[in-house]
Amino acid sequence: MPRTLTDSPNARLTAVLADVLGTDWTLPTVPEWPAVFTSEAADRDLTCYPDWKNGRIIFELSPAGAASGDFDRRLFAKYTPDLTGHDSIDGWLADGDLDAVADALAVILERLIELPLPERVPLADPLHTERERLAEQARELAANASYFAAGLIWSQPVGDDAERLATLARDLAHTATRVDELRGHKNPRR
User: What is the pTM of this model?
Assistant: First the structure.
């Protein structure tokens, strides 16, 4: 007898998860992977999908309707079922006793849903980033210049120190040019 749409692996897992999540969550609207549950009250989406390669189920919690660039605001959990007697995660989803794992899934989902979502990470200001890099390079150059000067005073070999200073100076000049460009200044030496 052929399977019906409600017998699909996705529909079977969705039914178990719907029981676990309760009425606060809206069921997925399409019977395909990934399955997306939505909680309007919590303003969150819970996405689940099989990880075919590793034989497990992945759960992803995100802000409702999160854009694909909001990866820094997502939380993940996974469940690895006992696939004994099944060829793959698909076989387990299609024929396994999903009701038997409902308690384990409930614990995983409860812990995941209770976690606060990470705050949005503001995009770094390129000028600020380059200025910090420039300051760090200047400090490193100054420290290495002190070692070089000490080596001269104490008649120690200074060739390696001089090469290090030259490399640091080139890096510093490159970063300084980048800072000037970000500030809108043109480099007159070019």
Answer: 0.59
